[in-house]
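Hi R.,

Here are the chain sequences for the assembly we discussed:
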Amino acid sequence: MSQFLLVFAEMREGKLRQVALETLGAAQLLAQEGDFIRIVLAAGSNTADAAAVLSAYGAEIIYTIEDEDLEHYTPDAYAAAIQAAVSEAQPTVVLFGHTALGRDLAPVIASSMGAGQISDVTSIEIKDGEGLFTRPLYAGKAFEKRSFTTRPAVITIRPNNIAAAAPDASRNPSAITELAYPTPSLRSVVKNVVRKTTGSIDLSEANIVISGGRGVKSADGFKPLEELAGLLGGAVGASRGACDAGYCDYALQIGQTGKVVTPEIYIACGISGAIQHLAGMSQSRIIIAINKDPEAPIFKVADYGIVGDLFDILPLLTMEFRKVLN
Amino acid sequence: MKIVVLLKQTLDTEEKITLDQGAVCEDGVTFVINPYDEYAVEEAVRLRDEHGGSVKLLSAGPERTAEALRTALAMGADEAVLITDERIPDDEYAVSKVLHTYLVRENADLILGGSFSVDRGGGQVAVRTATLLGIPHAGSITKLTVSGGSAEVHRDAEGDLEVVEVPLPALFTAQQGLNEPRYPSLPGIMKAKKKPFTRLTLDDLGLSPNEIQPATKQAALFLPPERKAGRILKGEPAAAVQELVSLLRTKVQPDTTAD
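And here is the predicted structure of the full complex:
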């Protein structure tokens, strides 16, 4: 029997996010002969543009739902929009990115559908016709593989881990269907949004993370990290020590409390490498440590280390990258 | 105001994970209140002190969870309920059903929990419970102000801050930065011993194991391969930096198009 997989393609500020293509990639890994992939786009604006881009990716149908209620995330507005697509598609599997939005929305949809959910999936394999989902426990100190015992099923995938879908010229463009926004009664009201991250890249999606610890010594101490991140198109993170000391916002914290990141390159500056921090970044592809203390535990997990003061090393590093990038 | 805090006991984040016969080894490890739930407990106690009312702790978990509940009582919560039953599966769909069954009779004004647990990290149970109860929720909050019949919260949304007004009853999950949890005082610890502590089973809730069949199951549990220490780039800082950049260029570039 054919399965229908419904992919929530997340947008941010009117644009498709990279994680949207990764979510679609996850659906393609799961889809077997005779299955259909459908996509839902729900946002305050620009869903038609995003649908036009996605139509080359081989999905059967793309649903678009657009309303000013969807300009800012509220669980009520987004759940109503996704439910409209769920009623239309009758999916056996619904997939989300494990982002701030997806993490909050997926359990609402799962609960409404009476579905099980496997969160924060980092890889997918098919065994005996069933999906097997690898996900971290204890922020990556251990891993488990899980499977569903029932349908429907909901999955959230961790950004940066599952290969993004690619356009598929051998398939017909997707049919694009506009769905009416069901206008639910909104219980919560977003009164204000303070964009603290304008222009910068989200930590969990960043390919390069430059992270500071107690060694940065002050809020100003993050400046050389920000400069390098800006040059490389990366994001700035922090250890718990730096957050607790008030050098930066907790939103930047990487670790078992805080965020788990898996970038291509992780540069730890002035971070000693407590076990709870290591849990949050050990799965990065290449780890670089810069620390004054040659005995710092961070060097035990780093691919490359430089023993020295981050305030000496980082400006040199930025200069060197600037040279080779030009 | 009637406040309920959903609480889970987790391994201390300083603990290393070891496996023993296909399970996480619990011998000799330290258990704590899930750090995010600790913010929820602190916030609940402060709100009660400000507005009056009561703080009830609710947990579904093994018997060892009693210790975490005692600590939260010592922080100032008034009462604890531990739903402990070996027939409750390790699955968020099932656990939220158990909590919902208890809470549906509770008519709490405010339910607080952590934004996720640092062990399984699914981030599902609290939000699922709110959805089952039919009450609104806001996740990852860093500020909570209650006045009249509604709450104003600050939400952390990937670094952006959203100010959201939510009518009560509602459920909120705590993010770091919400408050600074207190350490239990000695008088607090003494008082906690006399506070009401109820243990319940599925039978007490009138739930049959059939109603909470798990929707997912674990097929394997393993530790990631240990990372090996790499190379320390020696020499003058400028030379070390130059070598690093050239290593990165050869390491990263050929692979970015792979996969």
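The first helix of chain B runs from residue 35 to 51. Residues 2-212 of chain B form a domain with the Rossmann fold fold (CATH 3.40.50.620).

Let me know if anything looks off.

Best,
T.
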